[in-house]
Every structure is written in structure tokens, then in C-alpha cells.
Amino acid sequence: MKTIGMIGGMSWESSKIYYQHINEMVRERLGGSHSAASILSSVDFEEIERHSFSDNWEVIGTIMAEHAKKLEAAGAAVIILCTNTIHLVSDAITQATSIPFLHIAQVTGAAIQERGLKKIALLGTKFTMENDFYTKKLEDDFGLEVLIPDAGDREILQSIIYDELVKGTFTEKSKNICLGIIEKMKGLGAEGAILGCTELPILIPDSEASIPTFDTTKIHAKKAVDFALS
């Protein structure tokens, strides 16, 4: 079994789900008392959040590169970044290390392609929805048409994520708001919805949306386990 290196803490609410998924998947495949060989390097999210809102992405890239180098030095065979938004600086990781990096948009795009969908909604932070680091990969590598919510709904999602989800608050009201946004996107032709913030799948169960949803945390974790057991 290869060792999975995880950069976590963004937020730790979703990082613990990554850890859970990865270990459960290893046990399911290998049986017995098996669990994953893994290393977690976790950041102080307050610092990352502050730099994000100040548009200091170069600083965030430097922080991510340092954590990635720690993982490689500790023996990780692959690196995953346990967040969607911070993939905005994924190049800093790939340039700082020599081991494989599993990009969350790449593995999500492959999962959507496997389902045969062509038009997909993307929900996440404003950074994820409004920058092209995510949508461009989906469009260029998988030929998907990506729809994002309107400006008002992007603000609502941003507020729910940063004021509630990353702080461990998951309410029925916010779930219903997000389901309403998904319904709007369905009305615009979306055949499925990417839950493109690693906390969103905690808020929105698979079965509650009227179109297929793509749990990026679970998809990402599965690909990490595929690599570790290959």
C-alpha cells in the first residue's frame, strides 16, 4: 500500500471526512482490520482564509508548497489537497514536489464523464465559481458546459460556506437554500451539480437533490485510495 499525503485543515470539518472516507474505502477493499497508510499536514485555516479574502494567493501557494514538501519528505507517494478552493494554487504544489498530485477538478470531471452528463452546475465558494482554475479544466479536458449561479446566489453560497459550514454549522435552512439554487440551475439545463466545496456534501445528502450531485470529497478520496492500492 502506498502512503497518501493529505494537506488538510481547510476546513478541518471536511478533512475529517476525507480521513473517514479513505480509511473506510481501504477497509472495504482489503477487509479485516486494514486502514490507510496516510500522512496529514494540516494548516491553520484562519491564516488561509485571511489571505484568500485579501487576494494574497501567492502567499497561499507558498504555504501549500511547504506543506507538500513536508509530505514528500515524510514518505508520501501521492498528494491530495483536501479542499476545492485552494486548488487555485495547485501549480505551487506540483512545482515544489516530484510525486503525483491528484487534482480535485480532474477526478471530478472524470466522474461526470463516466455518467454521460454534458451540462453541469458548479456550486462552491466565489473563488471556485468565479475563477477559471476549476471550470477551465472541466471544459477543456472533459468537454463539459459549466453553469454557475447568478451573482446573488454566489454571495449566498459564499456566506453559507464561510459563516457556517467551515465553522461546523449545518442547518436545515441553509440546506434548503442550496437545494433551491440547484433547482434554479436545473431550470437552466444543468443535468447534475458539483458540490464544489468540500463541506457542501456534509450539508446536502446525495438523495435530496432532484438531479445527480457530485460529492467532490468522496470522489477525490476514492481516487487517492485507487492510487494507494494500485
Automatic annotation (TrEMBL):
Pfam families: Asp_Glu_race (PF01177). It comes from the Bacteria. Signal peptide: none annotated. Belongs to the aspartate/glutamate racemases family. Keywords: Isomerase. The keyword Isomerase applies. Gene3D superfamilies: 3.40.50.1860. InterPro entries: Asp/Glu/hydantoin_racemase, Asp/Glu_race, Asp_race. Its EC number is 5.1.1.-. This is Amino acid racemase. GO terms for molecular function: amino-acid racemase activity. The keyword RNA-binding does not apply. It comes from Flagellimonas ochracea. PANTHER family: ASPARTATE-GLUTAMATE RACEMASE FAMILY, GLUTAMATE RACEMASE.
